[in-house]
Amino acid sequence: MEESRQWPAEWMRGALSLCVLAIVVEGETYGYAVAQRLQAAGLGVVKGGTLYPVLTRLEVDGLVTSTWREGAAGPGRKFFTATAAGRGELHRRAADWETFTDRVAAIANPQESRQSTGSTKDDA
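Structure (tokenized):
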């Protein structure tokens, strides 16, 4: 995986809330761990000034909750947990994202799209 790859900002804006929600649904976590997970997945470095507003929007929308915990040897951390609504919304958004990216791929890579469906140029 190309961990140093810098994706276009508009792509990241479109995908970030879905990815962040998916990470929180995996289990209780905190902001820095979410950023590390995104980077490990090959999405690049996501700075706190970008990440924390996404987490706040998810919380305002009722998709995640947060609790503040004192740190044992360092500063406290805000932990995020997905709500039942958040888990349901993840399934809906993931399905919509798949449909959307399939449609974009069909336009951006018309030959590959036709090959995977068995269509030919003459069928179009």
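The longest strand covers residues 64-69. The chain has a mean pLDDT of 89.
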